[in-house]
Specification:
Blueprint lengths: L2 E5 L8 H14 L4 E5 L5 H5 L11 H5 L5 H4 L1 E2 L5 E4 L5 H8 L8 H7 L6 E5 L6 H9 L2 E7 L8 H13 L6 E8 L6 H13 L13 H5 L7 H4 L4 H17 L1
Parallel strand pairs: 1-5, 1-6, 2-4, 2-5, 6-7
Antiparallel strand pairs: 3-4
Helix pairs in contact: 1-12, 6-7
The structure holds adenosine-5'-triphosphate and magnesium ion (MG).
The site of magnesium ion (MG) has 6 residues, from helix 1.
């Protein structure tokens, strides 16, 4: 059985996709067979791994609608041990189609239940508490929560924690917050440090020791279709994600 990790935060632009891609890359690099599921209609994880969305015939949309099995949409990437289940904007339409459908909360869980090709599955979530995000939280054992080190970082997180609590009471009793990953830390500003302290206070014992600095290589890598570890493996961003991936693996055991 694969360990399934959802990278979730309903706030936009906090580093979910960057974290998903780069954690998945380092899991794969450490020898774990890894599947990255792009579960965001924006498809940023798909393009970030160099996959042309125009050319895709089957995507996570088909999986969610029950029109394809997961293994039928998965594509190999050029990075060893790393596969991708891609997405396109069509995935957004499934929210409407699924709204009244039976089993609408467990579509992803069911899709994952019938495969055993991977050690780790990473789910990149959209910036909302939508049906897709909830599907991710129900399919996962663990949540990695990227939090951007900025003033409003903690605002809205109560809602996510509440949603997780409800999911634990219902369809996924063992869902666990694996850890909080501070992202876009800027060591030159006092604010980053203050927010970091606040995050630690809000999530006692949950914040990873590794933090992700603001690093231009991290922002550049997706435009080359690469994880930062392949684009510039000695950059600060690459080393930070490598350390974070190791901590994640240590915590899942
Ligand atoms: N540590 C970092 N340093 C510099 N730029 C970063 C860093 N992390 C992410 N970025 C950039 O910030 C932007 C937002 O990051 P990303 O797409 O990972 O966030 P997201 O939470 O997935 O966004 P969305 O909510 O829209 O899905 C992207 O342009 C990304 O390249
Ligand atoms: Mg994203």
């Amino acid at each position: 059985m694969a360990t399934v990790i959802a990278v979730t935060n309903q706030k936009g632009g906090v580093g979910k996709t960057t974290s998903s891609i780069n954690l998945a890359y380092y899991f794969a690099k450490s020898g774990k067979k890894t599947l990255l599921i792009d579960f965001d209609p924006q498809g940023n994880a798909t393009s970030g791994l160099g996959v042309d969305k125009q050319g895709l015939t089957r995507t996570m949309t088909d999986v969610v609608l029950g029109q394809a099995r997961l293994d039928e949409v998965v594509i190999a990437t050029e990075f060893k041990n790393l596969s991708l289940a891609p997405s396109t904007p069509h995935l957004a339409n499934t929210e409407v189609e699924l709204a009244q459908a039976q089993g609408r909360f467990v579509r992803l869980k069911q899709a994952l239940a019938v495969q055993n090709d991977y050690d780790l599955i990473v789910i990149d979530s959209p910036p909302s508490l939508s049906l897709l995000t909830v599907n991710g939280l129900i399919a996962a054992q663990y949540v990695v929560l990227p939090v951007q080190a900025e003033f409003y970082a903690l605002e809205g997180l109560g809602q996510l924690l509440e949603t997780m609590k409800l999911i634990r009471k219902g369809l996924n009793p063992t869902l666990e917050l694996l850890g909080v990953l501070p992202t876009m830390m800027d060591s030159r500003t006092a604010l980053s440090g203050q927010v970091y302290d606040e995050i630690k206070k809000y999530f006692p014992g949950k914040v990873f020791n590794a933090t992700i600095p603001r690093n231009v290589r991290l922002a550049e890598a997706p435009s080359h279709g690469m994880p930062v570890g392949a684009y510039d493996r000695l950059s600060k961003g690459a080393r930070a994600y490598k350390a974070a991936a190791k901590e994640v693996l240590d915590r899942v055991g």
